[in-house]
Amino acid sequence: MMAKFPHLRQDFAASLVVFLVALPLCVGVAVASGVPAELGLVTGIVGGIVTGMMRGSSLQVSGPAAGLTVLVFEAVQEFGLPILGVLVLATGALQLLMGALKLGRWFRAISVSVVEGMLAGIGLVLIAGQLYAVADAKAPASGLAKIAGLPGALADAAGNTGAPASLGLGAGTIAVLVLWKRMPGKVRTVPGPLAAVGLATLVAVVFSLPVATVEVKGLLGSIQPPSLSAFGELGHVGVLATVVAFTLIASAESLFSAAAVDRLHDGPRTEYDKELMAQGAGNAVCGALGALPMTAVIVRSSANVQAGAKTKASRVMHGVWLLLFAALLPATLALIPIPALAGILVHAGFKLIPFRGIVSLWRGHRGEALILVATAVSIVAVNMFEGVLFGLALSVAKTAWEASHMKMEVIDKGAGPIQAYLSGNATFLRLPKILDSLEALPQDRPVELDLSGLHHLDHACRTALENWAERLPHFSTSLEAGGTPTAAGTEPVRVTTP
Questions:
Q1: Which domains are seen in the chain, by residue range?
Q2: Strand arrangement of the beta sheet that strand 494-496 belongs to
Q3: Which pTM was predicted?
C-alpha cells in the first residue's frame, strides 16, 4: 500500500488539518450567505472530492469562499434560494467553456490592483455585515448603509439583554484567532478557526448563553436541485449579470490563489486552463445540488501545503471527512453560536484587505494604489459587479494613458531652424498636446521636426501633423515613412520619420 502511495501518511495527516480548517469556514460562509449551513458543507465536499480529483493545481483546496459571501447573499435576497442552483450551474458551465477555449491564462492579465481592490471591497462589506451578527442585530442591505449604521447598532446592543453575550462570544472568537499564532507549537496543531469556534461553543453550552445558534435541516433536506422552470430566469439581465460576476470573481480568485500556492511548494506547477475546468466542473455539480459556488481558497490551500501534503489525495480525503461529518454528526452544527461564525468571517474579512500592499503601491505606483482604493470604494458604495467593472475600466484607461506617453523637446538657438524632438508613443490621446506645442512655435521660422524617437505614430497623429505642416505659410511636407519631405516655398519643414 505504501509502495503504491508513497506519500499516503503525509497526505492523510494534511487532510485532517484541512478538514478541521474547512469545517467552521464552510458553515460560517453558508450562514453569512443566507443559506442553510449544510449547503456550505456540500460545496466543501464537492470541492474536495470532485474538483480535488481533477487536474490543474495539485495542492490547492476548493470550497465556499468568504470572497463570494456578499454577492451570494445579495443574489439570494434578490432572486430567492431556488435560483441559486441555476446561477452556480451557469457559472460552472461558463468556466468549463473558458477552460476549453484556453482562456485560463488570460485571467493572469487582470490587474492585480483590481483583484486586490475587489477583495478589499468584499472584505469591508463582509466585516460590516458580520459585525451586525456579532451584535445580534439585523444588517441593512447596502454596503454604505451597513457601515453608516454600525455605531447605532452597537449602541442599541448595549441596551439589548442578549447582545452582551453575543458581543462577548464574537469578540472572544476574533481574539482567539488573532492570538493563536502566539500559542505554543503543540497547541497550534489544532487549527485556529476550529479552536475559536470550539471554545465559543463550549462557553455557550456550559453557561447556557442566550445566543443564536446554527439552524440544522439535515444534509438531504437542504439539497434543492434547481427546477426546469428556474432556468427560465437566465433570460433576465440581472440574473445574467450575477452569473458573469460569479464567474469573474470565482475564476480570478481561484487562479490567483493557484499562483500564490505555487510559490509555497516545489511540486508540479498549476495548469491554468485545466484548473479553470476543474473549478467549472465543481461549480456545475454544486449548482445541480443547489449549493454555494466554490473557489480555490488560499486559507485551506496554504494549510494543506504547510501540513505537508504531497499530492491531491489530501484534498480528496478532506472532502470525504466533510461528507462523513455531515452524514454522521449533523446535530453538532446546532450547538455552534452564530456570533462565533461571524467572528471568524470578520477576521477573514480583515485578511482580504491588503493593508501592506496599499502602502507599498502608494510608495511606488500611486496610480495602481488609486485603482485599488477606487475599486474597493465603488464595491462598497454601489455593488460587487459594477464595482469590479469600474476597476477594470480604470485599469484599462490607465494602461492606455501610459501607453500613449510622449515627450516633446524644443530647441531654439535664436537663429536657424527650430528643432522639435518627439519621443515615446504618439497616439490620438496625446494629439491635443502635440498640436498645442507645435502651433505655439514661431510661424516665421523653419522647423526641423524629428520623429525618429517615437516608438509608435498612429494614423490620427500622422494625418494631424501633415495638416499642421500644410497650414504653415510657405511650407508643406509629406510624412510618408522613410520619405524625404518636399518644399513648396522658400524653406521646407524638415521631418525625420520613425
A1: 8-397 (no CATH), 406-496 (3.30.750.24)
A2: 406-411, 418-426, 447-457, 494-496
A3: 0.76
